[in-house]
Amino acid sequence: MVGAYARAQRRKRIATAVAGLVLILGAIVLYLILKPHQEVDVGGKYPVLVQCTVCGYEDVVRVAPGTPFPITCPKCRERSCRKVWVCRVCGEHFIPHATGVELVCPACGSSSVGTAETSPDELAEEPTADQNVP
């Protein structure tokens, strides 16, 4: 009688261990299926919002730091994609037409403007709970 009881307990422990392994493997598979796809950062490239002045194509492209603009448009193959600038007051997106002049927003006239690109330093920074996130 004692031998039968010990065998039953051993089978129970083995079944519990197998069930635990199945649950762990199932969780790993579920994680791999549901995790969001992340683009691999190749060569330190970062996203920049650009607009083509020839065909009007507008999209976010990944460029290396120090890339000279204008860049080649993926749609029309002309070297006419320029950085899109954003007014920090009204939110207007625009491409500046003059160079070497103080830039102002065409919608509100504010000089508080900047490129809509995200620098590599900003991509590396993760906002913490105590920072204000816009």
Descriptive labels:
single chain; disordered C terminus; three-stranded antiparallel sheet; four-stranded antiparallel sheet; 134 residues; 7 strands; alpha+beta; 2 helices
In sequence order, what are the helices and strands, one letter per element? Answer: HEEEEEEEH
Q: Please report which band the strand proportion falls in: under 5%, 5-15%, 15-25%, 25-35%, 35-45% or over 45%.
A: 15-25%
Question: Count the helices. How many?
Answer: 2
Query: Nearest-angstrom radius of gyration?
Result: 28 Å
Spatially, the strands of the biggest sheet line up as 2-1-4-3
Given the C-alpha coordinates, what overall shape results?
rod-shaped
- Helicity level: 25-40%
How far from one another are the termini?
A: 72 Å
| Averaged pLDDT | 78
**Structural class determined from secondary elements:** alpha+beta
The main β sheet shows up as: 4 strands, antiparallel
* Overall strand count: 7
> Which blocks of ≥5 consecutive residues have pLDDT under 50?
126-134
